[in-house]
Amino acid sequence: MLSHYEKMRAGQWYDANYDPDILAKREAAKSRAHRFNQIDPADRKEAETALAKLLGDLPEGLEVMAPLYVDYGDNIHFGKHCFVNHACYFMDGARIEFGDHVFIGPYCGFYTAAHPLRAEARNAGLEQARSIKVGSDCWFGANVSVMPGVSIGSGSVIGAGSVVTKDIPENSLVMGVPGQVIKTIDQDQGNSFTNEP
């Protein structure tokens, strides 16, 4: 029989609020995140060590600004040369995966938890974790929210304040609540902004 933690990782309904093992794992992650968040930014080596204890092996060129908030930490996977700005939250009951060269603005949230619509089941503590996948070369403006189970294609730009509720094709400019594809980005041609190379 699967533990609730194993059910969570398998995408099944699990007890997120009352299972002692789940609660202990989240408390341990909060402590590790707190440690990272308290380090003087000038002490890059100590910060890197603390971040590795939270996330596991760190890819080349990863830069994460404190404060950082996670549920477990070990289910977040970054590619090379990613940047995470201040006060981002990763609700990583399921895997949250990023490709290379992903830039994440401040106050962004990546939420894998889905809850039952029926109050009785919600009140019993049930949740389901649905993975999030982001391709390479994506940019998230400030205060973007990405909902459970969403995949975002490489080369996409998500405008500030957007709420992404469904899969996004590659090279899409997305804005709004809910997020809508405004245009396709031509990666081989400059666009109409005069200050772009």
Briefly characterize the structure.
By secondary structure, this protein is of the alpha/beta class. The protein has helices at 4-9, 20-38, 44-55, 119-123; strands at 14-15, 63-64, 68-70, 76-77, 83-84, 88-91, 96-98, 103-104, 109-111, 113-114, 126-129, 132-134, 139-140, 145-146, 151-152, 157-158, 163-164, 172-175, 180-184.
* Average pLDDT rating: 95
What is the count of β-strands? 19
Uncertain runs with pLDDT below 50, 5 residues or more?
Answer: none
**Percentage of β-strand residues:** 25-35%
Amino- and carboxy-terminal Cα gap? 57 Å
> What's the main sheet like?
7 strands, mixed
Helix/strand-derived category reads alpha/beta
Shape: globular
Question: Secondary-structure element sequence?
Answer: HEHHEEEEEEEEEHEEEEEEEEE
Strand order of the largest sheet: 2-5-8-13-16-18-19
- Put simply, the count of helices is 4
* Helical residue percent band: 10-25%
- Rg, rounded, reads 18 Å
What does this structure look like?
The chain has a seven-stranded mixed beta sheet with strand order 2-5-8-13-16-18-19, with no helix packed on it. It has helices at 4-9, 20-38, 44-55, 119-123; strands at 14-15, 63-64, 68-70, 76-77, 83-84, 88-91, 96-98, 103-104, 109-111, 113-114, 126-129, 132-134, 139-140, 145-146, 151-152, 157-158, 163-164, 172-175, 180-184. α2 (20-38) packs antiparallel against α3 (44-55). The chain has 197 residues and is an alpha/beta fold. It starts with a helix and ends in a 13-residue tail after the last strand. The mean pLDDT is 95.
